[in-house]
Amino acid sequence: MSNDILLKVEDLRLYFRTTKGVLRAVDGVSFELARDRAMVIVGESGCGKTSLARAILRLLPRNVHTYSGQVHLDGTEVMALNEEQFRRQVRWVKMSFVPQAAMNALNPVVRVGDQVAEPLLIHNHVKSKKEAMGRVEEALRLVGVPLDFMTRYAFELSGGMRQRVIIAMALVTSPVLVILDEPTSALDVLTQANIMNSLKRIRKELALTYILITHDIATSSELANESMVMYAGQVAERSHAGGFYKTPFHPYSKMLMASVPTLREDKELAFIPGKPPSLINPPEGCRFAPRCPERFSKCDQDPPAVTMEDGRVVKCWLYTGKAR
Amino acid sequence: MMESKQNGTLLQVRDLHTWFELRKFGFLRIGFVRAVDGVNFDLEEGEAFAIVGESGCGKSTLARTVLGLYKPTQGEVLFQGRSLQELGKAYHSQVGYVQQDPYGALPPFMSVKRILEEPLIINKALPSKEARLARIEEVLEEVRLIPVKDIIGKFPHMLSGGQQQRVVIARATILKPKLIVADEPVSMLDASVRVEILKLLRELQEAHRLGVIYITHDLSTIRYFSERIFVMYAAKFVEKAKVHELIHNPLHPYTQALLEALPDPEPENAETFRNVPPGEPPSLVRPPQGCRFHPRCTQVIQGLCDQQVPPEFEPEPEHFVSCWLYRDGQGN
Ligand SMILES: Nc1ncnc2c1ncn2[C@@H]1O[C@H](COP(=O)(O)OP(=O)(O)OP(=O)(O)O)[C@@H](O)[C@H]1O
Ligand SMILES: Nc1ncnc2c1ncn2[C@@H]1O[C@H](COP(=O)(O)OP(=O)(O)OP(=O)(O)O)[C@@H](O)[C@H]1O
Ligand SMILES: [Mg+2]
Ligand SMILES: [Mg+2]
Questions:
Q1: Could you report the per-residue pLDDT of A270-298, keeping only the tens digit for each?
Q2: Residue ranges of E strands in chain B
Q3: Residue B221: which domain range?
Q4: Are A96 and A178 in contact (CB under 8 A)?
């Protein structure tokens, strides 16, 4: 495993202003990701996965209340850059994004080839249209879209093909890091498996680093070298994939894993009673405590992020005596 | 519940076809979408089975035809041995429908109480207001929307996705039907809530000996729910078997691909590729000749699979497959 850290995020926060108060969508998230690795981020709907991606990519809505922390990418502290520098040096250049549900947002009146070329032309990465089309062909080949689709329109394509086009748009600028937000959630299982195969192949071929966001734990294992579990805007657990899927530590991770139906293994399914807390004025102590079967007196206080022996991190009082 | 033969058959579906007319400029008929194209099955009283298949293969259309919401183009549906025409309106109080998309399923301007009272009024099930309220409270208890007092006056937008889906289930069961059709009842919900809802449905089914047709695209949830699985591809059933048998001994190449495509959460998955066929399901307007899966099938027999529609074979007892590989009555 390489120790060459590509992305280091520290105490990242993204709070939104809402009519009911300040909503803490990303609330002090820290992690590291080595080059050539794939990290998956899992967690229930509304736990802040997309907001975290947007915070890293600085794709912010108007109602931002707080945006702070550090994002170190490939030797640069990108939070220190101004918007113009960030646009020229970082977004789409070094890291690109496959947004959630983007396949339904493709422009219906633009041909596929021109659509995929868009990030190149907007960000002036190429000198000529001809060069752009060369790069587009390469990107479409990578994701497995036949070249004669270049002259078609999005609405003429199936869902699976549209999603491949979206992924091509994220690859066309040759980034080092690609953040994929639920790239296959809306697709059929066979299409999903085919696209996962493509993503694996592309990563090997281009030595890319991925962050994959999904609420589907079983699918997440298809790409994961590292896993991060989010709960109510925070990191509950970070682990290498072997640790997470085999022996999750955090009580929330354990219950999440127990709720995943498996095909081949016979197991009694469990579920997590109750629901996640509001991100407006969340509870003071551990945010999972109200639903946690293992809670005890200490859980009224905010648990620290405990680093365990093999580098795994768990935000839970049960592990404070077992730190590295 | 295979002993149920003595209880009688709840539903018989024979040679069912539901086609939608395709028109150009609103009047020129240019063809048909063959959304259900020759489906047969029996459902015993108190039995739960699942229909699994990918998006657009005709699951919802089949559900709606069985519920009497679409008139079949050909074939028939018999409920307790009587045709739906014969039963007329009475049929609607015997069947409950849990629709796909819970968020769109509940009228936003109605309280939970009104949502549940409406079917009772429309079907003239209970004459007195008090009796209706008592039944509403009973059903809310049953789907565990408790305390009932807190829930009954709420509007859908005040409820979580899981709670809304419980209201949908309450509405589907309030008339004490014999059959429930649940169309993707949990696919919109978070994984942690899904199991809870499926367990609830299962409990209701067992407690009231309901016949349940559970429709889903997610094979992995099925075995927690039903006894038999029917696999649907391009408007037809391709395989029918008991759950355990289908998962451990899938016969149709399409079923095999579906199972191969579904990962269990294992760290080793990141190191391997899945052996799944490329391509997509065919058009239902001009479906391929012969077996509809043949253009994607790795085991295609040229001159046969691309020419003739495979009949249903039974290579093992109670395990049916529509695939030419089993024409000698044995496995491949
Ligand atoms: N622009 C915004 N203004 C106010 N609140 C927002 C905004 N964007 C997101 N939120 C809220 O922030 C929280 C986190 O949302 P986010 O979309 O990041 O969750 P998610 O984990 O991606 O969920 P899902 O799995 O449903 O995609 C939610 O409570 C959401 O309602
Ligand atoms: N009312 C209708 N008029 C015309 N075509 C229709 C109609 N309803 C469904 N179809 C078509 O029939 C086919 C089967 O649709 P259906 O909704 O039954 O599939 P499904 O298996 O339920 O899909 P999903 O998993 O996406 O819900 C599709 O091609 C669909 O576009
Ligand atoms: Mg999201
Ligand atoms: Mg449907």
A1: 888 888 899 999 989 999 999 999 999 99
A2: 9-24, 28-44, 48-52, 74-79, 82-83, 95-98, 179-183, 211-216, 228-233, 236-242, 313-316, 319-321
A3: 9-326
A4: yes
Taking the CA of residue A130 and the nearest CA in chain B, the distance in Å comes to 30
Report the chain B residue with the minimal C-alpha distance to residue A257: B265
Residue B215 Cα: closest atom of ligand 2: 22
Structural domain contains residue B2: no
Q: What atom in ligand 2 is closest to the CA of residue B53?
A: 21
Pairwise CB contact (< 8 Å): B265 & A44: no
Cross-chain CB nearest to B258 (options A190, A259, A273): A190
Q: Which residues of B touch A198 (CB under 8 A)?
A: none
In chain B, the number of structural domains is 1
**B280 in Cβ contact with B313 (< 8 Å):** no
B265, part of any domain: yes
DSSP tag of A323: -
In which order are the strands placed within the sheet that holds B48-52?
B95-98, B179-183, B211-216, B48-52, B228-233, B236-242, B319-321, B313-316
Other residues' Cβ atoms within 10 Å of the Cβ of residue B190: 22
CATH of the domain at B82: 3.40.50.300
Q: Whose CA is nearest to atom 16 of ligand 1?
A: A48
Instruction: Pick from A27, A50, A230, A281 the residue to mutate for probing ligand 1's pocket: most ligand atoms within 8 Å of its CB.
Output: A50
Between helix A112-122 and helix A129-143 the angle, nearest 10°, is: 120
Name the residue of chain A whose CA is nearest to B193's CA.
A271
B219/A44 Cβ within 8 A: no
Q: What is the pTM of this model?
A: 0.91
DSSP code for A267? -
Residue ranges around ligand 2 (CB below 6 Å):
B 20, 33, 35, 53, 55-61, 100, 217, 284
Residue B4 lies in a domain: no
ipTM of predicted complex:
0.89
**Token reading at B17:** 């076809």
B331 found inside a domain: no
User: In sequence order, which ranges of chain B are alpha helices (DSSP H)?
Assistant: 59-66, 84-87, 102-105, 112-122, 129-142, 148-152, 161-173, 191-208, 219-222, 243-248, 253-261
Residue B266 confidence (pLDDT) above 60: yes
pLDDT per position as a tens digit, A168-186: 999 999 999 999 999 988 7
Considering only CB atoms, B191 lies closest to which of A215, A242, A262, namely: A215
Whole-number Å distance, alpha carbon A15 to ligand 3 midpoint, is: 15
Going from N- to C-terminal start, the domains of chain A cover: 5-94+175-322, 102-174
CATH of A5-94+175-322, one of 3.40.50.150, 3.40.190.10, 3.90.550.10, 3.40.50.300: 3.40.50.300
Q: In one letter, which amino acid is A316? A: C
